Amino acid sequence: MRTGTAAVAALLLACSLTACGGADKPAVPKSAVKASAPEHEVDCSDTSLDQADWMEHCSEVDGSGTGGDGGPSKDLPFGEAYTWPDGLEVTVLDAKVFTDWDEYEEADPNSTEFRIRLKVDNKGTGSVDLSELSIMVDGATNGGTAASSSFTRGSAPLEGRLASGVSAVKTDDNTLEKRYGRDVVVTVQRTTDDGFEVFPEFTGTIK
């Protein structure tokens, strides 16, 4: 009986070291594991990128994410571009005191009246309705919000459509009380059916 018991124990030990326990099971090559690992890389400069993927991988929750050009959306200096995922690029070129009045207009001595020039460049594949864009200007020193205005001479408002591959310089006129200074934050808002949620903010000085 003792001999039989010893034989059974030896058999169980052999089983655990081979087929039953897997001690001799060959290891999976590291290269195979790496090859099977899923990878999801997103090219934020791809203008055909799905909006959901862009929001997940190219835009941060706090709104300081990136557009298609990989740049930030806040504290952009005048002259720096921001690009939405569909390829529409916007740049606030400058803000200058307006003095070219016509015979029916005159300056307000208590306010700084100025014109913003924006460059819009459609690097996407379809046309863009420029009326989707709107401008909001805030004082950057001690508060204050500029009131929208419209100066006759040289005006080029954001309206009409911009074809693919075409760029244009547009204007937006404003007036800000002098007590708020000349440093401003220009927010370019965009309302579309695609639901772009990032509105770039440009900072600069009215010259």
What labels describe this entry?
207 residues; disordered N terminus; alpha+beta; 31% strand; five-stranded antiparallel sheet; single chain; globular; 3 helices; four-stranded mixed sheet
Could you walk me through the main structural features you see in this protein, from its secondary elements to its overall organization?
This protein has helices at 2-17, 30-36, 51-57, and strands spanning 76-77, 81-83, 88-97, 111-122, 128-129, 133-139, 147-149, 161-162, 167-177, 183-190, 201-205. By secondary structure, the chain is α+β, with helices and mostly antiparallel strands. The strands form three sheets. It has a five-stranded antiparallel β-sheet, with no helix packed on it. It has a four-stranded mixed β-sheet with strand order 1-11-10-6, with no helix packed on it. A hairpin with a 4-residue loop joins strand 2 and strand 3 (88-97). The radius of gyration is 31 Å and the shape is globular.
Report the portion of residues in β strands.
Answer: 25-35%
Low-confidence stretches: 1-39, 59-70
Instruction: Kindly name the structural category.
Output: alpha+beta
One letter per element, helices H and strands E, the order comes to HHHEEEEEEEEEEE
The outline comes out as: globular
What is the residue-averaged pLDDT? 79
Number of separate strands: 11
User: How would you write the strand order of the largest sheet?
Assistant: 2-3-4-9-7
* Helical proportion, percent range: 10-25%
Query: What is Rg?
Result: 31 Å
Sheet with the most strands?
A: 5 strands, antiparallel
